[in-house]
Amino acid sequence: MLPVNFHKTFIPERRLIAALLEYAALGKQGSYKEISLDTGIPMGESSGKVPAVLDYARGMGLIELASDRTSGIKKPVLTSLGKIIYLEDKYLGEPMVQWLVHMNLCRSDIGAKAWHEIFAKGRGILGSSFTKPQLEDYLVSIFGPGNNRTGPLVLTYVEEAALGRARVLAVEGEKVTRKKAPVLEVYATPYSAYIISLLDAFFPGRDQVTFSEFNSKTFWFEICLWDRSEIEYVFSLIERKGFISIDRQIQPWIIERKASVDQVWPHLFDDWA
């Protein structure tokens, strides 16, 4: 997971993420300074945005780093999700894409610690509405005192330059309100691919997982902020796509995969033409 202050107080600017995806697509590698010169991502002598942009892209599930971490040379490689987004929506302009990368940032494996604590584990503690001071106090209770940890996180979902189009958060003064993930038919294929990617990551080698087991490992229902009826409705939409089936004969219901993630990601934008 990415550490609490990985962002260095920067937000994930979509134009900089796009420049990094282009760099990765071309198979390039280099030091922070070389990446900066090639992509235009700002980098000074001792600090800059390149490390934060690399980490954001990793946490979003768009790239992996193939290079030796101790060498100083970074080789970003596009993931399956990164490849389709690079081809179809390099600047992460679609709210659907912004929701997917947000969900990845909230994960306990590739995501960011603060995101996971707030959006995944925090649902039952913070609730869906809280103030910025309450948010900061919550992080202090987990990680101890720190500087400006909630500012970049909140701004990420306010700024048009970042992930503001997804409307994950609504901010009015000091009040912050979480919004539910979309419960719409057009999201059925993206959610199918995303669920299968979670099965790969958290339940390797298994094609069947109960709903309760799935959520206890992935926290996906908490990240989406759905109630039971919304979960059931979303899965009824997903099931129609044929990539996943649901066994409703026993409780809790069982999720069963019918396709590999690499078969589904290429269909991500099929219903968004």
List the defining traits of the structure above.
DUF4007 domain-containing protein; 273 residues; Arc Repressor Mutant, subunit A; three-stranded antiparallel beta sheet; 47% helix; 3 domains; mainly alpha; 14 helices
Question: How would you sum up this structure, described in words?
Answer:
The protein folds into 3 domains: 14-93, Winged helix-like DNA-binding domain superfamily/Winged helix DNA-binding domain (Arc Repressor Mutant, subunit A, Orthogonal Bundle); 98-178, Arc Repressor Mutant, subunit A; 185-272, Arc Repressor Mutant, subunit A (Orthogonal Bundle). It has helices at 14-25, 32-39, 50-59, 80-88, 95-105, 113-121, 123-126, 132-143, 150-156, 188-202, 211-218, 220-224, 228-241, 261-264; strands at residues 63-65, 76-78, 129-131, 169-172, 175-178, 208-210, 244-247, 254-257. Helices cover 47% and strands 10% of the residues. With 273 residues, it is mostly helical. Strands 3-5-4 form a 3-stranded antiparallel beta sheet. The chain has a 3-stranded antiparallel beta sheet with strand order 6-8-7. The chain has a two-stranded antiparallel ribbon with strand order 1-2. The chain contains 14 helices and 8 strands. Helix 1 (14-25) packs across helix 3. The model has no long low-confidence stretch (mean pLDDT 93). The protein starts with 13 loop residues before the first helix and ends in a 9-residue tail after the last helix.
